[in-house]
Prior knowledge:
26 strands
Amino acid sequence: xxxxxxxxxxxxxxxxxxxxxxxxxxxxxxxxxxxxxxxxxxxxxxxxxxxxxxxxxxxxxxxxxxxxxxxxxxxxxxxxxxxxxxxxxxxxxxxxxxxxxxxxxxxxxxxxxxxxxxxxxxxxxxxxxxxxxxxxxxxxxxxxxxxxxxxxxxxxxxxxxxxxxxxxxxxxxxxxxxxxxxxxxxxxxxxxxxxxxxxxxxxxxxxxxxxxxxxxxxxxxxxxxxxxxxxxxxxxxxxxxxxxxxxxxxxxxxxxxxxxxxxxxxxxxxxxxxxxxxxxxxxxxxxxxxxxxxxxxxxxxxxxxxxxxxxxxxxxxxxxxxxxxxxxxxxxxxxxxxxxxxxxxxxxxxxxxxxxxxxxxxxxxxxxxxxxxxxxxxxxxxxxxxxxxxxxxxxxxxxxxxxxxxxxxxxxxxxxxxxxxxxxxxxxxxxxxxxxxxxxxxxxxxxxxxxxxxxxxxxxxxxxxxxxxxxxxxxxxxxxxxxxxxxxxxxxxxxxxxxxxxx
Length: 503
């Protein structure tokens, strides 16, 4: 793909242009290591580094033009320099133009919320495929441009704008008519502008609880940034809102789109609501009420997954222009996201679950649910991300100590923070646990999982939380390869429990 630079100027809106010429642009880049000949390089200011520092490196690698916010120490002849007010905003707008505004040719469903986004995104993707719709998806865990879903190669739930628009363009080329995009608060925020120029026609809310205060500064700003998805919907679009969430009214007032509500229990204005009749670690049997009442088996444990499924059914129906009830027959055949309530079986006489839960709100839903089905002790392994929301750490500890008999604190992604300092901040919220007896701080995650599995007895449950599908642990030295389920299997095998002994 190639466009001449002048065709991008209206999108970039430069305040000053230096240099002459109208070179072909073959690539948009914001990381100098990705620059190739013919690239337009965007010098983005960041939390830990600044793209302005890498302009010379980008030029050495073949960049033909540079978008920057600040004055540069030098300007090379033969290169066009575009000074802008906001480089991230310029990157978003240029990405949409460069790839031919792909979101305008697709029905794009955005899924936002604190917890449940990835599962709901994947459920919508499956429901649309089951109904004959050609669809792609971008989520934390999985990625598809029209073919079979594959693991997301990135650690960003919502990638930067060139990746998003490039993926949407490949979906369009593959014949997709629909796309499902996990829309994080970071991605929706004007501070990153990753989704600023994506045209959404359906917005889906799972829930809004405490998370990412280090980025947004307050719960109000966090909710406001998530609300940008719904404020941008067209009048003919649909806002799918969880009526059990206190923020649903806030968002309903801020959208022009029609509102479809859902929840657990009858609520005024609900398009679908569910009564949970039976629950187990295998799933839930529900009565789903809409324009008719149907019995539905949800093949995932927990009421939170019933909510996710209701959100997905409404999101898929809204995007396809069909009645939601027609999608309910597909629900029993849905598959879960890897690393979400994934049961690890190796013949051991206790339960082991791997889940991505990493917020106080997710803990509040998950831990009491599992507690109901465990006769023995609940042993929980988790940590908290470094250089991220510190205020949630004691909250995580408080919830975990309320429901678990044993808590093992360990690395999640410590990044540049002191590993033990993170664990101590979580431990400060753990109430009623004794260090060395029921509270352990073991930074090495493999060792921590081994400790938890080693102390488990018949009837106990071990929950390994926070990593789920992720394939790395980010340390001060960079990412280290990681496989949570693999680490659990190693720990079980070390104690004599091997997969072939399982069911």
